[in-house]
Design brief:
about 475 residues; alpha+beta; seven-stranded antiparallel β-sheet; 24 strands; about 25% strand
């Protein structure tokens, strides 16, 4: 026997009666991975027509819908109803709602249509607990429960739904929940358990106090935030728009291609002769084969001339490209869509002819703009890099990559932050190769303090702060 969920179409599904016995059912694809799809039904029986119209309005249980078809059309048409209902579920068109005292408590909404919903029955006697990957957030004035393990989201339509989720942070039976939350029957709690269990948001508590995901080798290695980031920045398991959507086109101005100079204290940098380097530089294969992280330096600091050549070869603006949505640039390292959202800051510890402090690199003019001298925050940033580098050696120069987030998110949706991290990798590899060609000591750093960096340079954490670090110096002589 089927569980008494209320079945209904997703909000974006439209039903149009073409004639007395034909109708068109269409998904309007509100957003994301949910594809547009149209079903044209001919010679539709009155009972099937009534059931489909019910799905598009208040909905009904599988039993009530099938009874309606049976009473109107007879037993021979019941198979047709189940055929179409199964097709609707396979397309990801059907929502499942738990109702208590005549009011909806929670609704399962499919967000990935290519994963068939398989109902798992729960019991009120068994203990269940929430998956550690499940989380709640507000969306369109609704509290939503989601998980990167799931192909659906649960809208919590009533305070009792939110209370149930809160209580399930620890193992509970349905009987315990009925005692703790007023107005719930065992049947309603059982149905709620089944909804979450079937959506990979709930686990059966075993005799050892764990649920299956706690002992899964493929899941225990994932931290919550990493799996969520992976699932939401790749297609699948969500219905969010993804890619170049230009979602802020008519809402906020596009950030400028080049960050304005951040101070009036300018250091003009050395510009190498690129044509001479093309003729005399090491071969690409040699550079690629010799590339490595070098974590110790000589007593002789890197020079500002070397710094100028390094920056010129890695990250200067080479040309401007006009796009239909604004200007983009081209630099020596590859970048997502030519947005070049990464701002480069140089924190000088020991650099010949360059005072210790923080500098912003201006890629258009190939200049350093001095922001601040050495202070407690600068010391802390350098020490962070020192510890991240295994305490091998204090950096001579620490580079910090800080994207202007809106520069990327103005164009990209869902994948904007993921693209920024890929751009960090692209810039780091370019820096490795250039440093190797210049006989310098390069090393990428695995982490840093974004709050400390924003406080040091005076940026808004939510508009521009650090996502990557790289240190450079003169290598020690073996």
């Amino acid at each position: 026997m089927s569980l008494p969920f209320i079945l209904s179409f997703r909000k974006d599904i439209t039903v149009t009666e073409e004639s007395r016995d034909s109708m068109m059912i269409q998904s309007t694809r509100i957003k994301g991975n949910l594809p547009q799809y149209t079903l044209n039904l001919e010679q539709v029986s009155p009972g099937l027509l009534s059931a489909i119209n019910s799905l598009s309005t208040a909905g009904g249980t599988e039993e009530s819908l099938s009874d309606s078809v049976l009473q109107s059309d007879g037993f021979e048409r019941l198979a047709t109803f189940y055929y179409y209902l199964n097709q609707f579920i396979q397309l990801g068109w059907i929502c499942h709602t738990v109702v208590g005292d005549g009011f909806p408590i929670a609704t399962r909404v499919p967000i990935y249509p290519f994963k068939r919903f398989q109902v798992q029955s729960a019991t009120v006697e068994q203990k269940y607990t929430l998956s550690r990957f499940a989380y709640c957030h507000k969306q369109d004035n609704q509290l939503i429960l989601e998980s990167p393990l799931s192909y659906a989201q649960i809208s919590l339509d009533d305070w009792r739904g939110a209370a149930l989720v809160s209580e399930l942070a620890q193992p509970r039976t349905g009987e315990e929940l009925c005692q703790r939350i007023p107005g719930l029957t065992p049947e309603t709690v059982q149905l709620f358990f089944s909804l979450l269990l079937s959506s990979q948001m709930l686990g059966v508590v075993q005799d050892n106090g764990k649920i299956e995901e706690d002992e899964s080798h493929s899941l225990i290695s994932w931290e919550f935030h990493d799996l969520l980031f992976h699932a939401r920045s790749r297609k699948g398991r969500h219905s969010n728009d993804s890619g170049k959507t230009f979602r802020f086109l008519d809402k906020i101005p596009q950030p400028p291609m080049i960050q304005p100079r951040m101070s009036d204290e300018i250091i003009e940098l050395y510009q190498p002769d690129i044509e001479k380097l093309k003729a005399e530089d090491y071969s690409f294969t040699w550079v690629l084969e010799e590339r490595k992280s070098i974590r110790s330096y000589s007593d002789k600091p890197i020079t500002v001339k070397q710094l100028g050549e390094f920056l010129y070869r890695c990250t200067r603006n080479k040309r401007i490209t006009a796009k239909d949505y604004g200007e983009c640039t081209h630099r020596p390292y590859a970048n997502s869509g030519g947005r070049y959202e990464l701002e480069l800051y140089a924190i000088a510890n020991t650099c010949d002819n360059l005072e210790s402090g923080v500098y912003h690199y201006h890629p258009e003019a190939h200049q350093l703009c001095r922001l601040t001298g050495r202070n407690e925050n600068v010391e802390a940033l350098l020490e962070d890099a020192y510890f991240a580098n295994g305490r091998s050696c204090m950096p001579q120069v620490l580079f910090v990559f800080a994207p202007r987030f809106q520069r990327a998110s103005w164009v990209y949706e869902s994948i904007a932050y993921a693209n920024m991290l890929k751009d960090v990798g692209s810039l780091q590899q370019t820096m490795y190769l250039v440093a190797t060609a210049m006989n310098l000591a390069p090393c990428a750093i695995g982490g840093g303090n974004s709050d400390l960096f924003a406080a040091t340079v005076g940026t808004d954490y939510y508009r521009e702060t650090s996502v990557g670090e790289f240190i450079l110096g003169n290598p020690s002589v073996d």
